[in-house]
Design goal:
Length: 248
């Protein structure tokens, strides 16, 4: 039996239902509250082996990315994205190396701890440091590293944009293009590592329509969310993601 048949036939009905919810949340996260994607990653990991869940999630994230970049194509800080290209690529490269050298749980807890520290620092009244180039490079490198290791690049990037006081549309547009580029960069690396394969891509393709439904729900709801509420929701989901990485 091929790996394609094994993954396809090994999933029970309840597993498909869990993945369906994950697909909706991924779509929603791409056009509304990015931190929700972490819940989707956790759900996928609950029903699939670690490598398979990462591959399925990455392909679904890319589907959501395509919708998000089109939706928010007029609300992008291209200069910021340009400054982050090099540190993100370095972070992804370091993350790929660490996947082969360091135990996964240790990496996850380390990342979670770093994000919690950044979250506390972000609550400090003086956020002027976020506008310094060196700080941006640090956040970019961390985003690249965490997205490669644990599909958790969202929290560092979200904290960085919150610190820079972006309005919700510019926030969404910049993160949409940023993570579209990041996930495209991760794709060949993930294929090379055996994370994305024909079987994982097929499962993601079956779930893709639900990702699209999630993006539509996100587009409808985000227009009704006030800026302050948006910032609070982003902060809450960053904290949830960090706590998950540390304790689970």
């Amino acid at each position: 039996m091929t790996s394609l048949q094994t993954l396809w036939t090994s999933l029970p009905l309840w597993g498909w239902l869990v993945l369906a919810v994950a697909a909706l949340l991924i779509g929603f996260s791409k056009t509304a509250i990015g931190g929700v994607a972490m819940i989707a990653v956790v759900l996928a990991a609950a029903v699939l082996p670690a490598k398979d869940s990462t591959g399925v999630a990455l392909v679904m994230l890319l589907v959501g990315d395509v919708v998000a970049v089109w939706t928010y194509r007029h609300d992008v800080d291209w200069r910021l994205i340009g400054r982050l290209v090099v540190p993100v690529l370095v972070g992804i490269g370091v993350g790929a190396l660490f996947l082969n050298w360091v135990d996964g749980p240790v990496l996850k807890r380390t990342i979670g701890g770093i994000i919690l520290v950044l979250l506390v620092l972000g609550l400090w009244p003086d956020r002027l440091a976020a506008h310094k180039p060196a700080v941006g490079m640090g956040y970019g490198g961390l985003a690249g590293f965490t997205t490669m290791v644990a599909n958790a690049g969202g929290p560092p990037m979200n904290l960085y944009l919150l610190a820079r006081k972006y309005d919700k549309w510019r926030f969404l547009g910049t993160t949409a293009w940023f993570f579209f580029a990041v996930n495209l960069t991760k794709l060949p690396v993930s294929i090379g590592l055996g994370i994305v394969r024909a079987d994982t891509a097929l499962v993601a393709a079956v779930l893709a329509p639900l990702v699209l439904v999630g993006t539509w729900i996100g587009r409808v709801l985000i227009a009704r969310i006030q800026q302050k509420t948006f910032e609070q929701l982003v902060t809450v989901f960053v904290a949830i993601a960090a706590l998950y990485l540390v304790f689970f």
